[in-house]
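[audit] Reproducing an earlier prediction to check determinism. Same input, same settings, fresh worker. If the tokens differ from the archived copy the diff job will pick it up downstream; this log only records the rerun itself.
[audit] input (299 residues):
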Amino acid sequence: MKRITKQGIWKPAIGDVSDGQFNVDYADGDVFIVDNLKDLSKSETVQLPTNIIILCTQGRMQMDVNGKTLSVKKFDIIMCPPNVIVSNQLFSTDFECKIIGLTDKIVQSFLHNNVTVWNQTVYINKVSTISIDESDSIFIDHFYELLRLTMKNSERPFRKEMMQSIISCALMGLCSLLANYIPVEIKSDTPRKDIVFRNFLQLLTKNEVKRHPVEFYAKELHLSPKYLSLICKRSSGKTALEWIDEYVLEDVRYYLRNTDYSIKEIADTLGFPNLSFFGKYIKRHFGIPPKNYRIQLRQ
């Protein structure tokens, strides 16, 4: 396949994965699973479109992630947020791994109120790799084998739902491991911008009504709205408003899919001023009215 690149960087979209342009075992638009990184040539520079989780099960690999060289061995996990640039991949001859790609939307959906653990790991602590022990590797491997069995039955009804349910449990299990491996306290030498960003995400997580203007969160953090957005952009690649929308939209999906609240009750619960405003907000982000989106989520 001919790579379409910009400034020497290949930037595949998540749709490229779903359309079969990668050698993947499974793809549904929000999730993809692949067994091998060796399809990327050593000289190819790629900007990954999704969150990526890689478990090294054998051998060694080295690659540059945003210019930082990472070396991984058996029982190491690599975690990357979307849009990181990967280059200079080197693999040992016996290298094997398991890879899962997840959109931001599906990570939010799977983890919901526990998404802070993931965000703190990849955005605040900027942890790219962790080394786990053999028992934890076996724990993760069992989930992957269950996924493999489900993947083989391509004609099975509810296959996508089964895959996503298994991955949801596996991701929650990974976050439970991260809670043990990643320190939660703020170190004395933690940069101020990382502290601010962490506090902002904690505010978003704890507020039932998350749909507030950036000014609301900036005031809570004793910052200017402009400075808060700048900190968020530098720490994560997304503005404060984009983070607010991301959390609000996941709450919308959660209430539409998992509760019997009326559309008006959901709008009231999430702090929208009226039903009309809520409907326009949902249609702007999802392309269809809330009632139709609820039907789509429950199919």
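[audit] rerun output stored. Observation attached for the diff report: Residues 7 and 211 are 38 Å apart (CA to CA).
[audit] end
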